[in-house]
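explain this:
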Amino acid sequence: MGRPVLVGVGNRLRGDDAIGCAVIDELGELEGVKVIDAGNTPENYLEPIARLEPERILIVDACDFGGRPGEFRLFGRDEIERLSYGLLSTHTLPLSLTAEMLARETGADIRLLGVQPARVEFGQDLSVPVAKALPEVVAFVRAWAGA
């Protein structure tokens, strides 16, 4: 299945946008898996991730794909560009550009686990539906990583 890297993306101060970071918090350290909390600047981790020479990268982020709050879906790299209009704009660079740069640097299979947010207002915690979905999202990520 290849050496995996998990990247949580989001802003901890903006409600459900923190879901990627919350997943990383819940996972902790995983044997044989590099786990990275990239916050709202995943582009700052391009070089460190490339040095790991991953074969697979999973990015976890809030994504408005029209689902119900807390619903999550796995998207391929080709879909990230299409979804970039629905990705939350708390990142310095579009996530589609970060994914493309990672693909060029690593040759890895890159996937996005998008979690549908309910709210992303500044100063909010995770919404109830997203917080309830967190254990299921974490279980999915563990299974994806083979941990």
Summary: The radius of gyration is 14 Å.
